[in-house]
Amino acid sequence: MKPSKFVRVATRTVAASVFLLLVAGALVTSTGSGLAVPDWPLSYGQLMPPMVGGILYEHGHRMIAATVATMVGFQILLLGFGRTDRTTFRLGLAAFGAILAQAVLGGITVLFLLPPAVSSSHAGLAQIVFALTATIALRTSLFWGRFSEEAPRAAGNPAALSKATRLALWAAGASYVQILLGAIVRHTGAGLAIPDWPLSFGGLVPTGAEWAAKGVVAHFTHRTFAWVVVALVVAAALALRGLKGVPGLGPLSTLWLFLLAAQVALGATSVWTGKAVAITSAHLAVGGLLWITGALAAVLLSRLAALSGAPARAGSPAGETAPATA
């Protein structure tokens, strides 16, 4: 049985809200407002402090986080009673657990004055929550059912499918590693440790003396690994295009390449503009979309590989229509 329209709309709304939370977090970091409110869970001992200066960003981020966490919690009930399969329900539980852990990490970052390791973990876990909620939205969509029915008939060469699946997994994984490296750069204040781009201090790599400057190693590692991500995403996107006739993969490949180009441009522009707030925030947001596009591509290809290797039961693609509450 297909999830109801209400469930489909609700899960998409939750995933979009998690993305909004990521953007709000990016604004906190980009404006240097992480300690604008020095206490937690209250803000200056209040539920609603004056929304001025950095408090607007930091307390606004907390308010959005509380709202989104509540939505992710209610989503569990929707999945449990909304004709979804067990796997999707378990993803809902995982998303709620992850966002609660995210809230705790957010509190620790404030109470311990923004330790880079905790702040970077906070950023990394946020992207996991995004991936979980986006996958739930995909699995409850009408497209998921259509893909499950039509894709196996159009899959074609098993070797090409296997290659595309591996590349998508590698590209998504590399994108997530790059997000973690970017988080380290942001939370150690290394965003302008190398002040030019595409060169580094006017050369291909920093010199011996330049390596000793604070943040240069982190910045250069992030910058260099970006080209690994570029190579893997391009290869994976082209492999998706090779699976002709499989629903959705062509547009997904185009979107993936577009986001990749935008992310590289934003990374360069953030250096050229001296970390302008709008640019650095957009850089984080597009990085999240790049990661999630790769993650969803990997989910779809893994689903296709499973369906191609094991025929579904009659009337139930891959046997996934059992109620979540069963």
Write the layout of secondary structure elements.
Blueprint (H helix, E strand, L loop, with lengths): L4 H26 L22 H29 L4 H26 L4 H24 L2 H13 L3 H30 L20 H4 L4 H27 L6 H24 L4 H33 L17
Summarize the structure.
The chain has 326 residues and is mostly helical. The protein contains ten helices and no strands.
Oligomer: single chain
**N- to C-terminal distance:** 14 Å
Mean pLDDT: 91
Strand-and-helix sequence, N→C?
HHHHHHHHHH
Low-confidence stretches: 310-326
Q: How many beta-strand runs?
A: 0
Binned, the helix content reads: over 70%
Radius of gyration: 21 Å
Content-based structural category: mainly alpha
Major sheet size, sense and barrel closure: none
Number of helices: 10
Q: Proportion of β residues?
A: under 5%
What are the key terms here?
10 helices, disordered C terminus, mainly alpha, 326 residues
Describe the 3D structure.
With 326 residues, the protein is an all-alpha fold. The chain is built from 10 helices and no strands. It has 2 domains: 1-140, no CATH class; 154-311. The chain is flat and about 55 Å long.
